[in-house]
Known about the structure:
Low-confidence stretches: 1-16, 48-92, 100-104
Bound molecules: MU-OXO-diiron, calcium ion
Mean pLDDT: 90
Radius of gyration: 23 Å
Strand content: 25-35%
Largest sheet: 10 strands, antiparallel
Shape: globular
Amino acid sequence: MANPSPRRTLPLLSTPHKGGRSSLTCAFRCGNACAHEVSNPSDNAYFGDIVTEALSRRGMLRAGALGALVVSTGLVGAAAAVPAAADPGDKVKYKDDVVGGNGSGHSTGLTFTPVAPNKLDALTVPPGYDQSVVVRWGDPVLPGAPAFNFDNQTADAQAKQFGYNCDFVTFFPLGKDRALLWVNHEYTDENLMFRGYTDGTAATLEQIKIGMAAHGGSLVEIERVGKTGKWALVTSGRRKYNRRVTPATAMRISGPAAGSALLKTTADPQGRTVKGMLNNCAGGTTPWGTILTAEENWNQYFVGGNGVPENQKANLARYGVSTTTAIPSGSRRFDRVEERFDLAKHPNEINRFGWIVEIDPFDPDSTPIKRTALGRMAHEAATTTLAKDGRLVAYMGDDSRFEYIYKFVSKGRYIPGHDRNNRDLLDEGTLYVAKLTGDSPAAEIDGSGKLPSDGAFDGSGEWIPLVSGNKSFVPGMTAEEVLVFTRVAADKVGATKMDRPEDMERNPVNGAVYLALTNNTNRTAAQVDEANPRPSNRHGHILEIVEQKDDAGALKFAWSLPLVCGDPTDPSTYFSGFDKTKVSPISCPDNVAFDKDGNLWIATDGNALGTNDGLFVMPLKGKERGWVRQFMTMPYGAETCGPLVTDDQRSVFVAVQHPGEITGATPDNPSSRWPDGDQPRPSVAVAWHKQGKKIGS
Ligand code: FEO
Ligand code: CA
Ligand code: CA
Ligand code: CA
């Protein structure tokens, strides 16, 4: 539906963001979270294998989807031991065969010519490669979806079409040349979607409904083009798996907090069902072939925080929710369409968001499940692997400044192909939070980025148990309270405040776990520590975790920073000792992924070096460890999301999120016209080598 006042111009929303992102991004993506006070007021010290399921019930269908790490494990169903506190003094040593040494002969075979940083309104790839759009905002997902019409969009059409701001991307092969692609739709830029849009208060109700329907996720069938690494959307035929999930989709709440009084509302007096998911950022998959999608900045969708009972206000504030009468800038005013978004009337509704949601891509009629055992936070993602004894482990970051790193370890063990055993493994287990300790004297962490005298930002860590089923390990909090107000619980046990923990992935080759820490311009000189060694950290860094005995179920770990990002001429940067004259500048790592060779692919969000975001690759082993090279640049204003290198290593998918999201841009004055020369449209793209070679060669 066209806006009635197409020529009104958008007011500048705020001064430029302290990092590299447009202030427009801040208003729409995370409700200007950075402009608010840090929501972690705790006085915590500043330090303080996916198995290929070849014999699954769906057999080969799912086998290729599950990534590469094959673990040999005696898999028998048995209860996990009661978690014991780790002894932080017992440092875990890096194994030489995990990291290797610079100077060893290992070569990655990454020989592509890096792309140069730029500000072009284009998706650029190295010489010898090509790229194309697979699916864009408004493309048909469900049969009967009308053709996209920018000036005549409707909520009904949007609910059948591909949503906005694509983020997490995952891929389930349906044979060699067909696949299912799942994509999250994190949030919407109404001011780029509607002519004359000013804010949620002035928006038409239809515009608000369109925005709602453009959230959630899409599952689409795609097909290989010819014999290349190019893939395209299937737009005809039955497409029996295609699905849209939105804030209107019926979902089930499961796990230890299901049925809690904290989750009960007028619409759901049992506290066991909820409508929809919000702000789904990154995600993961399970060994049994389901999707895990992470509700991130869900706190921005509610108003009326002033009207909640007084004793709830501290918990709201801890999640960055306003408790004043002011309507937050950038509010989409969902409450004008559905009363449940007004906290004064429905104070518990917000507790029903902020979870990891599990979705079965192979059953279009299945009900998505919010798994409360994994805690509630600004979930960036949940990436899974197996402990040595077969228990399922999910690694998770809470993406806000000074937040924490978590992992969940299931009680039961994963049994390949035993669906009834596996299906609810995410409902019972222990949730842990990470505490990191540096091994260098505090005086040597001087904020300059200079390495301490032992030659590394590194140290040891422990996983502190928070809750296991109905048992809380946090004094003064019940298990339900720990799960619903996980940040509050983690504050109480001395978890380590990190510089925006984002995506985590386990390396299929060396078994170590890697976490992107995007940035934190609020960290002061007095707050630096060995794991977050720079004040006013604009460019972020990468954390490498080596679990004790390489067991993802361990309670202790060693850690190191293999990459401290920025312009390589900036002396505060570190590229694992690799020759800095040969690396690409990199800023604000966000989503990460591995190829089968164990190279880390890094997507950036908010490049603070003044050029567009991009996709980079960094080897982690041997003489090429730290050799960061840029593989792609995004169109103007866009962030790189969801990188995925297919198992055959002939295709790399990226989600191009919010092209043209620059303060002052409007549909009548767009800052990007990617991909079609018209209005910018968030899209998933694929890149491939024109001669069919392995990605990166
Ligand atoms: Fe949605 Fe943390 O990026
Ligand atoms: Ca050290
Ligand atoms: Ca992101
Ligand atoms: Ca990832």
